[in-house]
Amino acid sequence: MNKEIIKLSKISKKFSGNEKDINVLKNINLKINVGELVSLTGPSGSGKSTLLHIIALLDKPTTGEIFFKNKNFSKSSEKEKDSIRKKGISIIYQNHNLLSDFTALENVMMPLLNIGFSWKESLSKAMKTLTLVNLSKRSEHFPSQLSGGEQQRVAVARAIITEPDLILADEPTGSLDRKTADEIFSLFLKLRSKKRAILYATHNRDLSKRADYKLNILDGNVLRKNE
Ligand SMILES: Nc1ncnc2c1ncn2[C@@H]1O[C@H](COP(=O)(O)OP(=O)(O)O)[C@@H](O)[C@H]1O
Ligand SMILES: [Mg+2]
């Protein structure tokens, strides 16, 4: 059985600037297997977000191919990619992006409603998922009534409710204090499972060290560091 979730083959990404082109990613080859918790580090502007967006099938590479569970998505239609983006891959951002007019519970239910689950089923799964992130008592609160760490936990609940194979996180603890960042990271440890992989970009050295291995981007190249 092949346990590969994502594979990048010779991926490059170039942005055309006003004066000169920026080669953000150069010939990246990368494989992430099921069960792995991987950190992504690199200086600001090194291409972490660009790489995550390409892996999430939200952005297209300039050249190269991308495989999700052994299927090549390089030339797939938006519709095909959309189905993976809704169920197979979830992305968590530094700023949680919760919908402010909806309660925590409603925010978490949303991805299930989007893929056709009934209201009742979505509600019951969302409650269970909020309990998993220790927020069952905050289900009726709106994002503005929650602390930064609680908002980020809602965002994590929303990202995992569809049971995606791959969870991507783009500096998810970037705007949190140390203790709260640790809490969010502990959630990732709890979510680590034989069924899925987690890739998270971080500036925090201590958190990046706690991954199974680190990926570091420098000058457009990604190097794997075992530590
Ligand atoms: N849409 C875009 N158009 C032009 N340049 C971009 C775009 N997105 C990112 N960049 C540039 O690509 C580089 C990498 O950005 P990014 O992936 O956001 O880095 P990081 O997440 O590591 O801070 C930066 O120099 C940034 O300015
Ligand atoms: Mg970034």
Defining key terms:
single chain, 227 residues, 6-stranded mixed β-sheet, 10 strands, binds adenosine-5'-diphosphate, binds magnesium ion
Written description of the protein model:
With 227 residues, the chain is of the alpha/beta class. The protein has seven helices and ten strands. It has a six-stranded mixed β-sheet with strand order 6-7-8-3-9-10, sandwiched between helices. A hairpin with a 2-residue loop joins strand 9 and strand 10. The chain is globular and about 50 Å long. The two termini are 27 Å apart. Residues 48-49, 170 line the site of magnesium ion (MG).
Question: How are the SSEs ordered, and which strands pair?
Answer:
Blueprint: E1 4-15, E2 22-33, E3 37-41, H1 48-55, E4 63-68, E5 71-72, H2 78-87, E6 89-92, H3 104-114, H4 119-132, H5 148-160, E7 166-170, H6 178-191, E8 197-201, H7 205-209, E9 213-218, E10 221-225
Parallel strand pairs: 3-8, 3-9, 6-7, 7-8
Antiparallel strand pairs: 1-2, 1-4, 4-5, 9-10
Bound molecules: adenosine-5'-diphosphate and magnesium ion (MG).
